Amino acid sequence: MTDLERNKQIVVDYYRTAFGGNPEKAVADHFGPRYVQHNPDAQDGPEAFIGFVGWLRGEYPDVQLHIKRVIAEGDLVVTHSHLDLEPGNPDNPGRALADYFRLENGKVVEHWDVIQDVPKQAANSNGMF
Predict the structure, then answer these.
(1) 70 - beta bridge partners?
(2) Cβ atoms of residues 109 and 32 within 8 Å
(3) How is domain 3-117 classified at the CATH fold level?
(4) Domain named SnoaL-like: which ranges (predicted)?
(5) How far from the centroid of its chain's Cα atoms is residue 46's Cα?
(6) Sequence-ordered strand ranges (E) for 23-127
(7) 30-68 pLDDT, tens digit each
């Protein structure tokens, strides 16, 4: 397996584990010695990430993360995902996420994201995913 494929697997496991309800395990298994967060609404560090996932699952207990694409280059892995906050609720179609992760020695150490609400209606029929 190439380093790129290994990094992709690490990020997918980290992300699915965290949003599947076990952010503590995701952090323990996949975070490096530091976690630098570039989202201006989020703090650095694993405790902040664990707190965010806990809050999100408290607000949306049935939340589901659907990873649609995974791209890797160098030490970066990018995911394009659908964060379905209330599965089956057409009034809340969720959010589209583009997440950028930087890894060192097989561990996630840095994160950037771009978040967009999925609209109920679109100007085209292409879909966001």
Answers:
(1) 79
(2) yes
(3) Nuclear Transport Factor 2; Chain: A, (3.10.450)
(4) 12-111
(5) 14
(6) 31-37, 64-73, 76-84, 95-104, 107-117
(7) 999 999 999 999 999 999 999 999 999 999 999 999 999
